[in-house]
Amino acid sequence: MTRNLRTANSKFIDQTSRISFKFDGKKLYGFKGDTLASALLANNIHLVGRSFKYHRPRGIMACGSEEPNAIVQVGNDASMTEPNTRATEIELYEGLEASSQNCWPSVNFDIGAINNFFSPLIPAAFYYKTFMWPSNFWKLYEYFIRKSAGLGKSPTEPDKDIYDHRYLHCDVLIVGGGISGIIAAKIAAKNNLNTVLIDDKNILGGTTLFQENECFKVNNSYSNEWLKNEIENLKSLENLTIKTRTSLAAYHSYNYLLARENLTDHLDINEKKDKIRQRLWKIRAKKVIIATGAMERPLIFNNNDRPGVILSSSIKKYIDYYGVKCGQKVSLFTNNDSAYETAISLNNSGVNVNSVVDIRDKANSLIVKQAEKLGIKIHWKSSVVNTSGYKKINSIEIMKLSDDGTTVFGKKIKEECDCLGISGGWTPRVHLFTQSGGKLKFRDEDNVFLPDKSGLDQISIGSCNGDFELDQIIKNSVRLTKKIFKN
Amino acid sequence: MKNKYSIFSIIKNAFSYNENWQRAWRDPEPKKEYDAIIIGGGGHGLATAFYLAKKHNMTNIAVVEKGWIGGGNTGRNTTIIRSNYLWDASAGLYDHALKIWEGLSQELNYNVMFSQRGVMNLAHNLQDVRDLKRRTHANRLNGIDAVWLNTEEVKKFCPIINTSPDIRYPVLGGTLQRRAGTARHDAVAWGYARGADAMGVDIIQNCEVKGIKRNGDSVEGVETTKGFIKTKKIGVVAAGHSSVIANMVDLKLPLESKPLQALVSEPVKPIIDTVVMSNAVHAYVSQSDKGELVIGAGTDAYVSYTQRGSHDVVEGTLKAILELYPIFSRMKMLRQWGGIVDICPDASPIISKTHIKGLYFNCGWGTGGFKATPGSGDLFAHTIANDEPHKLNADFNINRFVSGDLVDEHGAAAVAH
Amino acid sequence: MPNWNSAIKKIDVNDVVSVNLNHHSELFISEVEPIMKLNIRGKSRDFLSMIGKILNIILPTETNTSTTNKFITAIWLSPDEWLIFKNNVTNRGAEETNIEENLYKNISQKKLGSITNVSDQFVMINIQGKNLYELLSSGCPFNFNDFKNKKGAVTQTLLNHTDVIIYNEDINKINLFVRRSFSAHLWSWMNDSARFI
Amino acid sequence: MFLINCPYCGERDQSEFSAGGEAHIVRPKQPTELSDDQWAEFLFMRKNIKGVQFERWNHAHGCRKWFNMVRDTSNDKIYAVYKMGEKPPTK
Lengths: 487, 417, 197, 91
Fold this sequence. Notes:
Chain A has 12 helices and 28 strands. By secondary structure, chain A is α/β, with parallel strands linked by helices. Chain A folds into 3 domains: 135 residues, Roll (Ubiquitin-like (UB roll)), CATH 3.10.20.440; 192 residues, FAD/NAD(P)-binding domain (3-Layer(bba) Sandwich), CATH 3.50.50.60; 127 residues, FAD/NAD(P)-binding domain, CATH 3.50.50.
């Protein structure tokens, strides 16, 4: 392992228990608490897959369920292999074997990448425009089209694992164990309501869990410390059931929801035996509180898909939570304040931050001032216009933005980097709300869709409801939760 | 066609960074009057318009669509195409469609990716065996290529099926139609839209029909969200919403609209290269050219227009899938959705005139309309243009529910209803 | 007399489980030896008072409840239908025949209602243990949250797609009635599911 | 999945019920006297309403009683349930 990609200590990773795993046949090491993605990044592996059509190199881009790129095949066994699994969601265990998909012969040298060279000849709706001549050749064309289909490989033998399902009836179901969900759970359970709190991660706390910054304080302590205390207090509440590693899969009418609880996927191979792998919970809740948070948006520029281009908030989680440096020379590109949190975290962990490229004229928030005070260079009113580096980013090009923000001008500044963090603002996770049949509204100020009308007994709280500031999140989560219990 | 697709057009456009492709169809405002209006811009409606223009020289016509074209059941089905129906009338209808499918990509200059990978129907009990063998014989008498396969032959044709005798509903054999298969559903709608548009048909999207204007026993036009449009002939091809249109002229149809669900898995490398249907346990599955397993579930028993079904329907289907294909247990489902299907009591469609002059209905396709798209469009166009049914759809008139001449295809419909 | 060669036997679940149990389930499932079960139907006031006279019990009229006396228990099934079963296992002898005959003479023949002997149609299974409701919720869409604290509560619902009548005899102790033809299936399902409780 | 309030047993999961189609279709007293049109109307023709519909349901796996339901088929919202023979609610 490249030692210097780990920070000295992380509160969430047990650096005393080393775990060995294999990726693409190569033996690597990580620590207990790692995900496959964090362990790969710690081993300086960014290239993990190839894109579907042009076979362009793909790297880890996020750190949770929103990961679009790092989709891998887990296991080699014909009956136990699992295709298309997000590396960011696989908890590392002793004996894990994973491999990249959709590449041949290997992810480093992929024949299919020739498609990228011919990409002008493969426009959108390409299939419909061609392969029609001569007409009886279609069967042959189709054979090759089908060969290029799909990402992972299906198992070829029956599954040996055991699965279970169970009905669950509760007064309140809270989806998401971040700061809002925890506040709601506490209020619900203290109101003598039979409450269930679920979260897809292995511990509660969401992003607040590793938010240790002067700018984010609750009752005079760091928000992470305050929240840790709140989580500790939840344990004494009798009416509350907490289910971690449980992701909500469906939201049907009349508050009927399906959730998948992962029971053994994170265990060592020899500990999994004879245990239920996953349990499907069929939940009927009187009230549902959605607290699924928000996810960071990417920014659009040429070649923004290279390995090493990572969401800025994910870089922060990798450094603050997993103790993993996504790069040694990191540049950041943003249109909002969040990237500055990442810059400060990186700086505190001794990672060299090249600069922050910000499309705004100027910002005067506390967090930006804090970054300026640390001497972090900021390119105001500028944009990243291109990147280079084939299998991993090695530099970016920065240009000044015109007054109306539609064009760039002036000299191209080339900046060398081995990682680029991008932050295009935040998108509330309204997916569950819309799946339940809810209608959205649009907020013009920051271009987000927010939950609006719903026919069900449910509310959305926290950043999935459009609150992005800590004080607002706390205040509105309390207010809305109390309100739903009144009717 | 103005912008014919060919190898040359692809190379030419590559040089201009693919920025000069013409729109596949226009987006016109409705004219004041048309010779005919088709309500519903799904596959069947667009095909109807295409054949009205192509075969009957009716080019001053419009297709009005409430949402976007192909956004209804055309975009929601499991794309299975076959013609192995029991009765002569159905065999005639569905095989007429299958024959058009076989040359459709060339006819439209648009690759609909019609893939004749075969469709197998499994038998799980003795009654299934008798029914399916009977259907095979009936098919062959009608010139349809159906063969009976025993369990070993089933296993040989599709090796991933669990043919073990100790599953709850063991595979006792099956029928195979080799000419049957699948097609790319969106491409069908887009191909017909492009073809119809090129001949002058106006395709008007985001235009909901609010009422039908009548003068005595004839139609005069349609009230839409884009204003009144005058016409003497209206062809209704609104699938799940047929009764809603019929109610505008106080017409009752023998239909119930129910949610039908389907789902696809994450994409994987090719693992099943045919279509397997299993009515008794309700599991049918195929794999798309993108790699997703395409799975058809059942209908709910109640009327609903919500495009959402009940979870237990999907769960039952997946249980059956896993019994027949235990290797899929670790695969994850990517999407699940519902469409609204209008079901006739005899599980056969209606392609018919009505007692109102100039009003025609093409509906009641239930859970299996996609396969008939080209045939349905061709025959409905004939019916509208001549004010008389073609001999292939004469048996599918509304009046059969009064006369009692039903075309009972419950056994051949994929989804029990 | 029927042949009670039932598929159901008195078994402690842990004995028949073939796969290792991860932890002790403390669940006991056994068939209650053949006892008399009667299905009675009727609506009129005369019917209700006649039943009361013969059986010395007031039939429950409140939804999802039961009444019981020293000898028998009456379970509400629907506004005009009840299930009656004997509380204790006794040899099926003259006593039971007398009850049935008495009811038949005074209810069925007088057209006040109908009496059907369902002793053989339904199998009664007793389930005890603190994980009992976890087992049920593996296959039951019914909400047991209130039911489990209400002695004498009754429900008819589905358990693994099988029709069942569930009677709350005591805390963590229920009697479950299932049609005989489904009983072997349900029994094996319970055995299988109990492994994971 | 609906949560249906059976008028006899209370709130139960949809899987315990079966749907029985449009309600208040009166079976003709003298079927032999009907014309073919009238018979077809009774047997096959349905309003198939998109909107508020009156329909029959059966608590098949519970009390086995039939009852009526008022439901909006455009959003599956159940407005009321009432026993067989009872007057349908007007609002």
